[in-house]
Amino acid sequence: MTQPLFWQPAQGSAQIWRTLLGLVLIAIIFAAVAFAIFLGGAVLMNEDPARLLDGDTPGAASLFFAPFLGFHVALLIVLPLLHKRRYASLFGPGSRLNLRHFRYALLVTAGMALVYALSMVVEQRVLPDDLRPDIVLITPPGRWLTLLVPIMVLIFIQTLAEELVFRGYLLQQLRARFRSIWIWAVLPSFLFGALHFDPLTYGVNAYFYVLNTTVAGVLACLITIRTGNLGAAAGLHFANNMLVMIMGVAGELGGFTLLAMTVNPMSGYMTWSILSQTGLSLVIFALWWRWMNRQHAIANAPGGD
């Protein structure tokens, strides 16, 4: 029996005007909700909103992630209003997040993190002092563990929101209308990557960062189409952002970060770090894709556990 296609829920309302209008409405609603959450949080904490932008305290870091609730609110409004379908349809034809795929994605990301950690051990031994980044403790482990549950909840809200918009809404709408991978995978992934463009912080590495996030987006689109559910992409994104909270870059979201590398974001080391992670992702994806092509029963599975 043929499994339902991931984009099937969008087939009845895949007109371009609906998709474009939907994106505009999602952006407007998100901005309004995010602004209200951020300002409301600043008032409750009796803090200057500008002071909270650095995310260097747990409260400030929370106000970085909490506004992503705006995307969930926007999708809850736009989907039934404009497309006559439910929010849950973004997960795939089964209308549920496939938790088995989500768990597999966590394990894959953990394996990649182990490879990256081993490479850092080697770097610490072979690189000269002026090129080797220091690793510093940002938050005492006991305190970080007390924050772990809120961190996980907020990161799940943030990463799922982005997946629902880019690998849920956009991917379903575009794939239901177009067959070209350049339109339904590359174009929205480049848009996703471009939102991370920050030349003031990263210099020329901002372009490599956009490349990294664009490649990650394309791979997430292919994985989602292949598995027929948002579970794997959501798991990869969640695990990746949790790893950043375990080992991040000094000066970024210090309120939630356990360890951080004191590295110049414009440095050659950062270039190597970004490109090596991109390359490792491509290798792992190629191996998975080859393996999946030998499997028929689990490909494009729509359901949850």
Offer a few descriptive terms.
305 residues, mainly alpha, single chain, three-stranded mixed sheet, disordered C terminus
Describe this structure in words.
- With 305 residues, the chain is mostly helical.
- It has one domain (8-292).
- Helix content is 65%, strand content 4%.
- The chain has a 3-stranded mixed sheet.
- Helix 4 (99-126) packs parallel to helix 9.
C-alpha-based Rg, rounded: 20 Å
Query: How many beta-strand runs?
Result: 3
- Domains counted in the coordinates: how many? 1
What number is the mean pLDDT?
A: 89
Count the helices. How many? 10
Given as residue ranges, the uncertain stretches (5+ residues, pLDDT < 50) are 297-305
Give a short overview.
This protein is mainly alpha-helical. The chain has one domain (8-292).
Describe the secondary-structure layout:
Layout lengths: L15 H29 L13 H8 L3 H15 L15 H28 L7 E4 L3 H37 L3 H14 L4 H4 L2 H23 L3 H16 E3 L9 E4 L5 H25 L13
Parallel strand pairs: 2-3
Antiparallel strand pairs: 1-3
Helix pairs in contact: 1-2, 1-3, 3-5, 4-9, 5-6, 5-9, 6-8, 8-9, 8-10
